[in-house]
Design a protein that fits this description.
single chain
């Protein structure tokens, strides 16, 4: 059973007990993702469609990927904190149904842009607008997609995700501010580190915003 805790970002200065370091997060390229499949840097985000912090992060991550010249890929994973957000799980199911019809990111954007309208009737309206049978995104027809949502949630729990949004950059938890500037800096640093690890030309890996 999915159990959520808090949707507030982790506070600076929080520490873990010795030996509590989570394993590097997997960056499965076949999950919902935006950006080039051969991107230099992969961002994995655990998010909740009813979380206001996630709505803000969505636009920032979108801009980050679009301005990266294909060097950044954003992977979305569900982490519905339904103990606080009553529509988070049904919204996640609707997004999965849309994904099965090749419209995940369109539904993703609609859900975050309309966080005050996530009841079933609105989910059905969003589906119709995307050319999807409205009856598929709510109720029993949407339930089979719960396995995918629960798998994402379990993966997040394994990484000790407790709130949303939680972001990993190339497998390392990002603890900075959810602002474009700090994220760009972290992504550029990750790209440079990967270049060193795989012996690639560092200049080829530089992010567009880092070029002078």
């Amino acid at each position: 059973m999915l159990v959520g805790k808090s949707d507030r970002p982790e506070k600076k200065g929080q520490t873990r007990s010795p030996g509590a370091r989570a394993k590097r997060v997997r960056t499965d390229p076949w999950r919902h993702s935006r950006g080039g499949p051969e991107s230099a840097v992969v961002i994995v985000e655990y998010a909740d469609f009813e979380c206001p912090y996630c709505a803000r992060a969505a636009g920032i991550l979108h801009e980050l990927v679009d301005a990266s010249d294909g060097q950044v890929r954003h992977v979305f994973r569900h982490f519905p904190v339904f103990s606080m957000h009553p529509f988070a799980l049904t919204a996640a199911l609707a997004a999965e149904v849309a994904g099965a019809h090749g419209r995940f990111w369109e539904m993703h954007d609609l859900l975050f842009a309309n966080q005050d309208r996530l009841a079933d009737k609105y989910l059905m309206a969003f589906a119709r607008g995307l050319g999807i049978d409205a009856d598929l995104v709510v109720g029993d027809p949407a339930q089979p997609y719960g396995d995918a949502v629960e798998a994402d949630y379990a993966d997040g729990a394994e990484q000790r995700v407790q709130g949303t949004p939680t972001i990993f950059i190339d497998g390392e938890r990002y603890r900075g501010r959810l602002e474009l500037g700090p994220l760009r800096t972290a992504v550029a640093r990750a790209g440079a580190a990967r270049s060193t690890e795989d012996g690639a030309d560092r200049r080829r890996r530089r992010m567009p915003w880092a070029r002078g």
